[in-house]
Amino acid sequence: MEKSLILATGFILGLRHALDPDHITAVTQFISLQPNPRKGIGFGLRWGLGHAITVLAVGSLIILTNVKISLRFEKWAEILVGFTLIGLALWRLKLLYQMKRHTHLHQHDSEIHSHPHSHLDSSEHVHSHAPTLVGMLHGAAGTLAVFVLIPLSFLSSKFLAYAYILTFGLGCMLSMGLYGLVMGHFYRKAQAVSLQKLFTYIVIITAFSGLALGVFWIGRNL
Known about the structure:
By secondary structure, the protein is mainly alpha-helical. It has one domain. It is 76% helix and 8% strand. It is built from eight helices and two strands. Strands 1-2 form a two-stranded antiparallel ribbon. The radius of gyration is 21 Å and the shape is globular.
């Protein structure tokens, strides 16, 4: 019963951990580029998978070899996360800048209607592995924090330690998948033709928020 409760706690902590500001800021950049609930779920799940892969890989070193992960490793991983946030924000702003908008004029009887359209550069395509790679980087930065949360009784058992890591990872995947679903709906609504200008403003705010957070993330780890 106690072990089940601890594993359930790990799952809940995974749900919460996924929603750390650096995590959601990164995933939101992808969602704002392809605003769709289904794709939002995909971005979130792939990010969670990447995060779980790295935590499992680094965790295996700790569990199987008792290697000590230096705090310096975590520090530089966090700094790299900051640069990644900045890179994603600049990438998103670049694609927004490249958006070519034009207006078609259509005449219906005696009325002329203008219909705004958006043409995005083909580079807007998000490679399926990009969110996974970002998740892997976040996992590297957060592995030590995960192991601090594992009870000592679990660390004495390889099976229980792995079980805790897996339940934590599943919590992260589920939480970020649900976040992707919600934000996919939000950005799709904002992208409606009548709200195109609002969508542009939201994307700009999203990108600059990521830029500011990236700078903060680097500064606090230097």
